[in-house]
Amino acid sequence: MEKIFDYNTTRKKLVLPEYGRNIQNMVDILLSIEDRDERNKAAKTVISVMGNMNPHLRDISDFKHKLWDHLALMADFKLDIDSPFQIPEKTSFTSKPKLVPYIKNKIKYLHYGRVLELMIEKACEIEDQEEKEYLITLIANHMKKSYLLWNRSMAHDSAILKDLKELSHGKLDIPADFQLTDSKELLAKPRKRKHKKK
Fold first, then answer.
1. Helix (H, G, I), strand (E, B) or coil at 167
2. Closest CA to 136 of 167, 109, 91
3. Under 8 Å CB-to-CB from 11, ≥6 apart: which residues?
4. Euclidean distance between CA atoms 120 and 148, whole angstroms
């Protein structure tokens, strides 16, 4: 007598493979239970088993909600049960996400980026002189580091300070004796802390 093997390749494709074939089979059995009360009890049991598969996620606030959403998804939204959460619409999983609008502001120096330009704008608004000077130091050193990561050649401090003045539209007063951090120090990798043995 010829034995027929049941390979995964011949089986129905899993909706959420991370739960495995057995959980999917449980969900399929849920769909066949006619008594609503029995179906509700069985659904809670399946949710419990699904939760036990990821015990490290139990502390996440919406973990239970995700499990019920996953159950609905694996049942192809055909499961009629009393879910403690609103059952999502099938279209919410199939519809394409909305396009994220791209910032249309022109970035003057791409290697510095838009965030740095916004930081310079904020620095121009600060009135406290000591705080302003501290922020100028941070921004200028960040500009130098960005330049070095982009170019890897020598970053001349005078060129960095010239760019800073240009990007601030001359609003940031940079002292004549202003010194930027050394290039090697800016690109140095942070040392790993050695843990003392107890």
1. helix
2. 167
3. 21
4. 19
The residue behind tokens 């059995």 is: 29
Give the three-state DSSP class for 197. Answer: coil
Contact in structure between 11 and 69 (CB atoms under 8 Å): no
> 1: which DSSP letter?
-
pLDDT in tens, 149-187: 887 777 788 888 899 999 999 888 777 777 888 877 877
Q: What is the pLDDT of residue 44?
A: 94
Residues 82 and 40: beta-carbon distance below 8 Å: yes
Overall pTM surpassing 0.85 (yes/no): no
Helices 36-52 and 63-74, packing angle to 10 deg: 120
Amino acid at residue number 2:
E
pLDDT at 24: 92
User: Which run of H or E residues covers position 150?
Assistant: helix 129-151
Residue 105: both structure tokens together: 């502001």
19 phi-psi bin (left φ>0, alpha ψ -120 to 50, beta other): alpha
Tokens of 48: 């419990």
Residue that the structure tokens 């809670």 belong to? 44
Q: What is the structure's pLDDT at 5?
A: 64
Q: What is the C-alpha separation between 95 and 89, in angstroms, rounded? A: 10
pLDDT along the chain (198 residues), means of 10: 61 85 92 93 93 80 88 91 86 76 76 87 90 89 87 79 90 80 76 62
